[in-house]
Amino acid sequence: MAGKNEMSVVVLGGGVLGVSSALQLAKRGAKVTLVTEAELCSGASGRSLSWLNSAGERSTAYHALRMAGIDRYRTLFAADPTRDWLRFDGGICWSANDVAGTRARHSYEKAHGYDSHLVSANTVAQADEQVNPGVMADEAIFNPGEGWVSLPHLVEHLVGELRALGAEIVEQAGKASVISEQGRACGVRSDKGELRADAVLVACGPWTPQVVAPLGVTIPDGSPVSMLVITEPSEQRLKTVLNTPRAAVRPNPGKRYALDHDWYENDIKLQSDGSYQINESVVAQLAQEASKLLRGDATLIPHSWKLGLKPIPGDGEPVLGELQSVPGCFVAFTHSGATLALIAAELLADEIITGEKHPMLASFRAERFG
Ligand SMILES: Cc1cc2nc3c(=O)[nH]c(=O)nc-3n(C[C@H](O)[C@H](O)[C@H](O)COP(=O)(O)OP(=O)(O)OC[C@H]3O[C@@H](n4cnc5c(N)ncnc54)[C@H](O)[C@@H]3O)c2cc1C
Questions:
Q1: What are the DSSP calls for 130-195, one per residue?
Q2: Of all atoms in ligand 1, which is nearest to the CA of residue 226?
Q3: Which numbered atom of ligand 1 lies nearest the CA of 203?
Q4: What is this structure's pTM?
């Protein structure tokens, strides 16, 4: 890793992408200040299913980036396989009554080397003996190479390293904006004052398009509302991540589970103060759907739930790298930001420090939107 350099960088946004990028920049010797609106993880990273995967069909470049993302998590996992917030025990998914679709997805995954196995009610126990075979579709896909991470735990881990490298973290800064002079980004303005820097990285999750709009940059936004439920501790010991027609489930530290899905999106209502609300009966219904997926008489009880935007760029693909029209201003805005958090940070930090464009980011530039 490079030693000290003269560069100062402000990272805007205290989610996993901001924190991870700040750490990679600090490791490369930059003077880093992370500025965020509220507390760390107040956005999507505090309420994410964070299934680490590259399942299903997507562009070749996006698949390659996600696989590199999983690779970096595997390295982190190998450094301490006992962590209860990062596990690689595989994922199981099925869709409702669509054997042809499941087989097509399985064939597609195998064709590009993604570890993919068809399982049935008779064989699913070999993948995870806690799955209730009685509610499965006739065929499901088991992807043994997948995992999950708890982003608040990961962020805490990364922040420990970041602080040790002398980076400054400014929380409760309100909605900050990028300062540009003669077309070049040169700092940020927030409730805490003005901060000058050689480069700015905007990693504001679903709010990224709003932050770059005053710079004359349009990034289409497709971020939907979403909910993550954390359950009370349960004796069930599911290991895998389950993606099923009515509930997605993953283990969470503390013998809890994290649950999400999208069928209740229309039940999430925006309040006049900008927060979101959902009827408690919908939360209970999601917990019931998840309970059915577990063997035995499991009853998952909701402990807490968080609502908010899930960052998704308009075309579904990541937006990463420097804005051509605003030199010195970099962006990180992506769906699957859990899977990409470590690798995207690494590639962005390299670009910011060296000024050399990384080929893996070539198709993810904001300029593709014209
Ligand atoms: C329900 C759900 C399920 C998900 N499932 C998965 C999954 O299975 N796999 C996967 O890989 N990914 C998943 N994701 C996506 C992933 O969690 C996100 O892509 C990732 O957490 C985004 O991190 P981020 O740092 O970009 O944004 P965020 O975590 O949203 O952080 C952005 C931060 O910027 C701050 N901010 C915003 N505007 C400003 C401003 N103007 N000034 C200062 N600060 C500002 C916000 O307060 C926030 O703290 C899921 C997300 C959700 C919500």
A1: TB-GGGS-S-EEEETT-EEE-HHHHHHHHHHHHHHTT-EEE-S--S-EEEEETTEEEEEEETTEEE
A2: 1
A3: 26
A4: 0.97
**In a structure prediction context, what are the per-residue pLDDT tens digits for the chain, which is 370 residues long?**
444 568 999 999 999 999 999 999 999 999 999 999 999 999 999 999 999 999 999 999 999 999 999 999 999 999 999 999 999 999 999 999 789 999 999 999 999 999 999 999 999 999 999 999 999 989 999 999 999 999 999 999 999 999 999 999 999 999 999 999 999 999 999 999 999 999 999 999 999 999 999 999 999 999 999 999 999 999 989 999 999 999 999 999 999 999 999 999 999 999 999 999 999 999 999 999 999 999 988 899 999 999 999 999 999 999 999 999 999 999 999 999 999 999 999 999 999 999 999 999 999 999 999 8
CA-nearest residue, atom 6 of ligand 1: 50
CATH number of 86-147+223-309: 3.30.9.10
Domain covering 8-46+152-220+314-369: architecture:
3-Layer(bba) Sandwich (3.50)
Q: Where in the chain is the domain with CATH 3.50.50.60?
A: 8-46+152-220+314-369
- Pairing between β-strand 199-202 and β-strand 329-333 as defined by DSSP bridges: parallel
CA of 302 to the centre of ligand 1 (A): 22
